[in-house]
Amino acid sequence: MADITGFLKIKRKEAGNRPVHERICDFSEVEQTLNSEDRMLQASRCMDCGVPFCHWSCPVDNLIPEWNDLLYKGDWRHAYDRIISTNNFPEFTGRICPACCEHACVLNISQEPVTIRENEVAIAEKAFAEGYVKPSPPGIRSGRKVAVIGSGPSGMAAADLLNKAGHLVTIFEKDEKAGGLLRYGIPDFKLSKATIDRRLNLMVADGIIIRTGAHVGKNITAQEIVDQFDAVCITTGAAHPRDLLVEGREFCGIHFAMDFLTAQNRINEGQIFVTGNQIIAEGKRVLIIGGGDTGSDCVGTAIRQKAASVTQIEILPKPPLIRTPDNPWPYNSKVLKNTTSHEEGCERLWSLSTVRFVGDGQITRGAEVEEVEWEYHSGKSLMRPIPGTRRVIETDLVLLALGYLHPVHEGLLYELGIELDDRGNVKTDENLSTNRHKVFAAGDAACGASLVVNAIASGREAARKIDLFLRTA
Question: pLDDT digit string (tens) for 136-154?
Fold first, then answer.
């Protein structure tokens, strides 16, 4: 390491965010950037630990101390080369990853970890700005054809590595543009869609074919794909949302969170126009049920749509402000997370269970909730309602951000007779192969809903297994 005492001399300095009063008026990215000199100083804080816990906690096995050292020395080009060797899309993860690496950073013992995530995206953006990132199609083709069904992060990662291995790769995407969850599920204020298009254009220049509007199992038969390709990789994600089946669920004004987020993303891209049929929060009292990242994204989107008020409720108890003894470093810290959306204005409530929806005729006017308390016995969590705590939260628009159960079974999976596990996900073996010959699965479709960085890691692993299959078949 060039400066082994950097962490003693330099304090953690984050890039910061655009002012709240400015950013809530548009959907441009919230996070700002540091100048190159400050970013290099932040990289000098990396201690090159004997046991790099940051690397241990990273799903894609990023060589974090190595590229931090290169960044500190000003060798941006080789820093990017080191990142891209383990992560296909650092410009994505550098923006939206929850930074498991920073939770495990040794400096997080004193709550001042290295700005690993920001360093990563800075290196990626410098590489694009300086022209380091160029199309590099493989020199030799294997003659084998692979179909990747789904163009989210796992599908993109699998396609990228399989193409680099020399195989002819075609991505099939049911929507009008590629990107999957990255494009339609994540708000523009977190991830600009121009960033996705920039990478997709590179992949096309490298020789990957992308077919949009191609819904395998609906307007293209799954068997047709299996017959035409030497291997098939299912990366359709876990798109079946968890519902809340309580009295009044059928009322107008209750929607799944992803429908709300997708509609706004399409509006931002000019694909559809705002009409009376769209899910719009303007002037409404918005209630978001679910305290995770999807719920947070709904908060920021509703605020930008000029909601009258935004309330987010969670059935679990409020997390602690600091680590508890049963959640030690270097494990991911289970502490209260305040996102940029929460900073913009939102009431947050915990330990609330939704009992029913109340309404005027067929229109929702409120959610009756009840306080609960949690007990823990023998490693199991038990929820107990607290008598006499029921009340109604008045609302005009309810967004269900309760997570996802499994991939959509109808169509592709049913047509191919794909075996499912006990959670409803695609069942795979140690080679990520399904019960159907030459059909593999990766990402959320096989593992359940998770982080984008986990999807990339799964897609990369699937690519390695498929390449081995094609070379030995």
Answer: 999 999 999 999 999 999 9
Residue 126 near residue 35 (C-beta atoms within 8 A): no
**H helix or E strand, kind and range, residue 172:** strand 168-173
Strand order in the sheet with 145-149: 209-212, 168-173, 145-149, 231-234, 439-441
The CATH code of the domain that includes 363 is: 3.50.50.60
pLDDT at 48: 85
Residues of the chain under the 50 pLDDT cut: none
**What tokens appear for 51 in the block?**
């046991």
Using the 3D structure, point to which of 355, 381, 402 is the last residue of a domain: 402
The pLDDT, as a whole number, for residue 272 is 66
**Spatial separation of the C-alpha atoms in residues 324 and 320, rounded to whole Å:** 7
Q: CA-CA distance, 372 to 374, in Å (whole number)?
A: 7
Please name the amino acid found at residue 128: F
* pLDDT for residue 136: 95
DSSP 143: S
Domain hosting residue 360, numbered range: 243-402
Q: How many CB atoms lie within 10 A of CB 471?
A: 12
**Do strands 254-256 and 352-360 pair parallel, antiparallel, or not at all (unpaired)?**
unpaired
Provide the H-helix boundaries in 165-256.
Answer: 181-184, 193-205, 222-228
